[in-house]
Amino acid sequence: MLIFFVTALLGRVWCGWTCPQTVFLDFVFRRVERWLEGNSSARRKLDATPWTDPQKILRRGAKILAFLFLSALIAHVFLAYFVSLPALYGMMRVSPLEHWSNFVFVSAATLILFFNFFWFREQLCLIICPYGRFQSALIDDDSLVVGYDARRGEPRGKPRDSSASDCVDCHRCVQVCPTGIDIRQGLQMECISCSACIDACDAVMTQLKRPRGLIRYDSMRALNGGKTRFLRPRVLVYGVLMLVGATVATFALSRYTPAGLMITRLPGDPYTLVDSGVINRFKVRLTNKSDTPLTFSAALENAPTSAHIPGFESITLAPQEEQVLQLLVEQSKSGYTGSFQFRIHFRSANGQIDISDAASFVGPSVEYLNAQR
User: Fold this and answer.
1) Which of 15, 48, 77, 179 sits a CA distance of 20 to 30 A from 289?
2) Is the pTM of this model over 0.85?
3) 288 neighbors 262 (Cβ within 8 angstroms)
């Protein structure tokens, strides 16, 4: 809902400025590329140079090695989110065979990232990413987009043509566009709002001593001479839905506990008759989500006083540990009055954590049990 709300107001600002694909490509890989191979004109000349030229081999080889290193670095950092940095460092100091699955993951991720940033690039935005394809359902004539002011720029001509408007048809906006479109043809799905065409056009306008902003961030309504309306139905609807989602998320986070509990009945017979009474068996999944050890004790709520849990006086879990335990709830024959609903509480030793789950105790009819005595 936040993306919908922002898109309705500011167009594809996510694609041009916040998407990880754009951030890594423009602020990391393209900077290395410009440093090693020069600007776009120099890179086109280098592409046309034969591979027999030592300069091309040196520059292109350095670029490939740099891209492989950056791709491997990103892949390792991504893996560290799941295994922690100290664990990752330990894995890197031993044979890959000892952690072969992580090694395969990092290797595959490195190759995918290298392929993406070395060659695929904006094709990911055009072919794979669905956002550009449904942006037309999110924006309208009042959304902020990268647009061409046709009232100023048409008809196009040369700088010395007195009858021409501000656009001199230099094609700089097309040359710098990462997706290869001509912004002068209007808003297009391929535009990711990176503003490269704005910078190129403003530089030309400055050289020609003409007003900047021939290509600029503006709404289509404003580019056609109207006034942008920021408050409109779709913005209000997206804003309300965003607030509802934020409220739900806040409520969910407020109920977060540093421990987790799930109780299910073990498969097989629902109950067991023993000399001392009736037994029900449950599987308890107890999780310590915190970074410190926790000790729990179990207790029953809404259960007959004759019901008890043997062996659950103290359970200690290490940080981030999960234990699956078998829990027996036993009720004596003398106090048995039939099936009942109850809750099982697990309380920490310091009394700060109290988690519970509901369960059902089942057994034979009271008449049957009395007949067996």
Assistant:
1) 77
2) no
3) no
Q: Domain 259-372 - what CATH class?
A: mainly beta
Of 60, 70, 57, the residue nearest 114 (C-alpha): 70
Place of tokens 């607030």: 243
Residue 268 structure tokens: 């097989």
**Residue 266 gets which letter from DSSP?**
P
Alpha-carbon distance 327 to 284, whole Å? 7
User: Three-state DSSP class for 343?
Assistant: strand
Report the distance separating Cα 356 and Cα 299, nearest Å: 9
Residue intervals of the chain classified under CATH 2.60.40.10 are 259-372
What percent helix, strand, coil does the chain show, rounded to 5?
Answer: 45, 20, 35
Q: What is the DSSP letter of 16?
A: I
Going by the DSSP 8-state scheme, the letter that residue 159 receives in this structure is T
Question: How many angstroms separate the CA atoms of 154 and 167, rounded?
Answer: 7
Torsion of CA 234, 235, 240, 242, to 10 degrees: 110
User: What pLDDT digit, counting tens, does each position of 43-70 carry?
Assistant: 989 999 999 999 999 999 999 999 999 9
Closest by CA to 322, choosing from 281, 284, 266, is 284
Q: Which residues of 326-356 are buried (b: 16+ CB within 10 A; e: fewer)?
A: ebebbbebeebeebeebebebbbeeeebebb
Query: Which amino acid is residue 287, in one-letter code?
Result: T
| pLDDT tens digits along 239-267 | 999 999 999 999 988 888 899 999 999 99
Which residues have CB under 8 Å from 196's CB, separation 6+? 176, 177, 178
- Residue tagged 């009395």 (tokens): 370
CA distances in angstroms from 219 to 5, 148, 224, listed in the order given: 16, 10, 9
Say what angle helices 40-48 and 54-83 make with each other, to 10 degrees.
120
Q: Distance (Å, rounded) from C-alpha 178 to C-alpha 43?
A: 14
